[in-house]
Design brief:
Layout lengths: L18 E5 L12 H13 L4 E4 L2 E2 L8 H18 L7 E5 L2 E3 L4 H6 L19 E5 L9 H10 L3 E5 L12 H8 L3 E5 H4 L5 H12 L5 E3 L5 H10 L3 H9 L11
Parallel strand pairs: 1-2, 2-4, 3-5, 5-6, 6-7, 7-8, 8-9
Length: 259
């Protein structure tokens, strides 16, 4: 009888998000996972902390990671088969797709010209985009000339844009005019969960919370790379401020279309 009044076990911290839409777990294509086993370990931690689905987003960045889109698609197909064959008793999130994190750099235009921008689909895009949501990033060291024009041109091409981890760019402050302009243009922002826990330093942490308080951040992502990040994700899952944030703020991750 008394068992009827027991409190339900709380869901894992990141369960409200459902989907992680930014991670680097395709082995040996960028600075993320270095092996199948490492990816399996990391995915297990992601499921443990509440993610039901993940979408892989390898870097497309020149000259460090000049990945070929067709090669990435083939590697992803093989990786899915390897995960299924080797996961054993591990409880893992479902892999939903491979897209990409495209850096605005000297190699970006090649992907545009060849119609090779991998995207997400979304239930409620801001601009009714036909080509999906494109995850982009900027240089982490200095602002590139002409960013505004490049981003606007992609919007005019029919893409919705998600800017990855705006809090990590040192040239954007708490009240950045350019970020305000981007929001007025209907660009989505995705902050890193680990930023909220101080993984990238105090400045990135402070800006991540400020951008969320501004109402600028629609998505949260892990930006997961390796087992070190997985340990940090477990730590972040116990952060009371993050737990409270997820209880009081609705993010758009769950609205990414299941493919």
């Amino acid at each position: 009888m008394f068992g009827l009044f027991k409190k339900k076990k709380p869901l894992p911290t990141f369960a409200p998000l459902v989907t992680d839409m930014h991670c680097h777990l395709l082995p040996l294509v960028d600075d993320g996972s270095k092996s199948l086993e490492e990816s399996l370990e990391v995915m297990e931690a992601m499921k443990e902390t509440g993610f039901e689905q993940i979408r892989l987003t390898p870097h497309f960045a020149y000259p460090r990671f000049p990945n070929d889109v067709e090669d990435i698609k083939m590697r992803y197909k093989n990786f899915c088969e390897e995960v299924e064959a080797n996961k054993g008793s591990r409880n893992l999130p479902r892999m939903m797709s491979v897209t990409g994190e495209f850096r605005i750099d000297d190699g970006f235009q090649k992907y545009v010209d060849n119609n090779q921008l991998l995207t997400y689909r979304f239930n409620n895009p801001k601009r009714g985009s036909e080509k999906g949501l494109l995850l982009i990033e900027f240089s982490l060291s200095q602002k590139r000339m002409g960013l505004e024009d490049i981003v606007f041109e992609r919007q005019m091409d029919g893409y919705d844009i998600i800017l990855a981890h705006p809090e990590r760019y040192p040239y954007f402050g708490s009240h950045s005019t350019l970020l305000e302009q981007f929001k007025e243009q209907g660009i989505y922002f995705q902050s890193n969960i680990l930023s909220l826990d101080g993984f990238y330093g105090e400045e990135a942490q402070r800006k991540a919370y400020e951008y969320i308080e501004n109402g600028w951040v629609e998505f949260l992502g892990t930006d997961m790379h390796n087992t070190l990040y997985a340990q940090a994700l477990r730590h972040a899952s116990m952060n009371k401020k993050i737990i409270k944030l997820l209880e009081t703020t609705e993010f758009e991750n769950k609205n990414l279309v299941t493919e």
